[in-house]
Amino acid sequence: MPASLADLQAREEARFAETHPRSRELAERAKASLFEGMPMHWMRKWPGGFPVFVREAKGARFVDVDGIEYVDFCLGDTGAMSGHAPEPTLRAIAEQAAKGLTLMLPSEDALWVSQELTRRFGVSSWQFALTATDANRFSIRLARHVTDRHKVLVFNWCYHGTVDESFATLVDGRVEARQGNLGPPVNPAETTRVVEFNDVEALERALAYEDVAVVLAEPALTNIGIVHPEPGFHERLRELTRRHGTLLAIDETHTICCGLGGFTAANGLEPDIVTIGKTIAGGIPAAAYGFSAELAGRLAGTIELGEIDVGGIGGTLAGNALSLAATRATLGEVLTEAAYARMIPLAERWTDGVESAIADVGLPWHVTRLGCRAEYLFSAARPRNGAEAHAAGDAALERYMHLFALNRGILLTPFHNMALMSPATTEADVDRHTEVFREAVLELGV
Ligand SMILES: Cc1ncc(COP(=O)(O)O)c(C=O)c1O
Rounded distance, CA 376 to CA 358, Å? Predict the structure, then answer.
């Protein structure tokens, strides 16, 4: 298979270059003024040698500068899970833009948004940021502050944004800087304990040191393929964190795919902190982090007014009027109960389609779904943790599958094989993906 995969890849790259002359030209010109020719360094990761440049996007589709239309299952890696340019969000943006964008003063929307976040996630005391990374960073700082402990515990192969403490992996049971970690401020072994997801015994051992301020966790891993928690795992995680005086922060940035209140509400979790970003404002930068009433009580009065603006938690534009207006509209009118009632069955349809193609061809792959997110992985067995999921990765195969799809008008995320449904995605979009996927795997054969 590897030799023919290389041939197939070469064929797809030639087709991509030929059919995207305008994107290719822009990518060439960009080298003069953008570092390595990209506005964001990781955009180099898109398959095909250069990314498609986008002309416009609406709903679940976008059109590139060569006039080619795509079904978008990447949806800005969740930033556009609401669908591109949803009408209620656009209206709110236009109205708010005419009335001022940022003031460093609260707008009334802050109240509505925080009440809605409480209704969805349970925790009752909210702050705003502009990115999920910042929401996580600030939560970690506050957790250290209130517990007077310095370590953070994360699960192996997690991703929580560009949070220094989270770029650590387990190598032969030791904590080491994650491969590719650029200029870590200190060796992450000093700041971080790492355990495998679903490994309750290791979690218990790590928390028993009683030096962990906070466990920062996605409730199901979504950034190394999807790894579900095993039955009882979250109960044990909560029980152990409470027993050892460690706070529990649940990062719902991706798992908002599970429903209105993410995995937390769907499964009755009781975190001390919830963090979320990306899609909540329909693509306008906005993020939030909320504390339980108990934690808010512990924090209250501990932050000195004189130094409140230089304590490491901030962001001049955080909580700005535009972000909050867009969040209100997106949560209130776009990512609604009715939207999830469409999106989740679409992900089930996507899963069924991909599963049937895998079965027909006899490939040792499987599909996992979490709410309106689904993903295929190149292994027969479902991974129990990050290490197993990482071991099932195959970069060459992934690039081929992505490029094959892209050449036929389908965009997957640039990282692993994920598809996300928006309220604007249709059954026909899903069926088109199944058709293209089937074609790709038939060519690969076994
Ligand atoms: C679970 C999770 N948390 C946080 C982040 C960081 O989001 P951002 O890059 O918007 O800060 C990501 C990004 O992929 C994520 O997957």
Answer: 10
Q: Which atom of ligand 1 is nearest to the CA of 218?
A: 1
- What pLDDT score does 4 carry? 86
B/e letters for 122-131, b = 16+ CB within 10 Å, e = fewer, are bbbbbbbbbb
Global pTM? Answer: 0.97
Q: What is the dihedral of CA 136, 224, 15, 421, to 10 degrees?
A: -70
Determine the average pLDDT of the residues in 221-231.
Answer: 97
- Kindly report, residue by residue over 257-281, the tens digit of the pLDDT: 999 999 999 999 999 999 999 999 9
Please tell me the distance between residue 165's alpha carbon and the centre of ligand 1 in angstroms: 14
Find the angle CA(374)-CA(378)-CA(380) to the nearest 5 degrees. 95
**Which residue, by CA, sits nearest to atom 5 of ligand 1?**
161
Q: Please enumerate, as own/partner, the contacts of 310-316 that have beta carbons within 8 Å and a separation of 24 or more.
A: 311/141, 312/138, 312/141, 313/127, 313/138, 313/141, 313/142, 315/129, 315/130, 315/134, 316/102, 316/104
> Which of ligand 1's atoms lies nearest the C-alpha of 134?
11
Of 321, 309, 279, 273, the C-alpha closest to 131 is: 279
Residue 153, token pair as written in the block: 């515990």
Q: How far is the CA of 18 from the centre of ligand 1 (A)?
A: 34
Q: Ligand 1 mean position to 161 CA, how many Å? A: 4
**C-beta atoms surrounding 33 within 10 Å:** 7
HSE-up (13 A, CA, CB side) for residue 240: 22
Within 10 angstroms of residue 47's Cβ, the number of other Cβ atoms is: 22
Residue 158 alpha carbon, nearest atom of ligand 1? 1
280 Cα to the center of ligand 1, angstroms: 12
Cα(114) to centroid of ligand 1, in Å?
20
Helix residue ranges, H only, 215-256:
233-243
Residues near ligand 1 (Cβ within 6 A): 77, 131-133, 136, 159-161, 218, 223, 251, 253-254, 277-278
**Residue 424 contacts residue 345 (beta carbons within 8 Å):** no
Residue carrying the six token digits 């080491």:
176
